[in-house]
């Protein structure tokens, strides 16, 4: 078997020991701030650049709305009650044998936005819900 680029359509999301089905996962992004610094006595007329703090974008999870499944809403609603339930999340990209070939481990995630898609009487599309998660970083294994 050749060393082909990985397909993005076969993945799994887990938290709290449970596998949760999603149609889309996005937002796995990290940026390192650039800190510019120049000493007053430096003969150079430009600043040096150093790495600063890391910044992680929020993760976006999308899935079809299911009857009597209010887990997303209940989780974000608990934040409003002055408690934050943080969860570690594992996002795995799978091969043809359903084995992980790349695994992103997200640390201390908590919901910061919940959205239900638009209702449309002329559409055949599935009603989608979106959960946006703030987190404290991830690693790739």
UniProtKB/TrEMBL annotation:
Going by the entry's taxonomy, the superkingdom of the source organism is recorded as Bacteria
Q: Which InterPro entries match?
A: CHP02241 (IPR011747), Phage_T4_Gp19 (IPR010667)
MF (Gene Ontology): structural molecule activity
Q: What is this protein called?
A: Phage tail protein
């Amino acid at each position: 078997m050749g060393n082909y680029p990985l397909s993005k359509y076969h993945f799994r999301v887990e938290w709290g020991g449970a596998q949760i089905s999603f149609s889309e996962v996005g937002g796995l992004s990290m940026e390192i701030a650039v800190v510019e610094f120049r000493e007053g006595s430096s003969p150079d007329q430009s600043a040096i650049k150093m790495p600063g703090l890391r910044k992680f974008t929020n993760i976006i999870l999308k899935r079809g709305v299911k009857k009597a499944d209010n887990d997303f809403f209940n989780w974000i609603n608990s934040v409003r009650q002055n408690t934050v339930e943080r969860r570690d999340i594992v996002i795995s990209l799978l091969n043809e044998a359903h084995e992980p070939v790349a695994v992103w481990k997200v640390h201390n995630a908590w919901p910061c936005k919940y959205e239900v898609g638009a209702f449309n009487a002329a559409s055949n599309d599935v009603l989608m819900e979106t959960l946006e998660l703030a987190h404290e970083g991830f690693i790739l294994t």
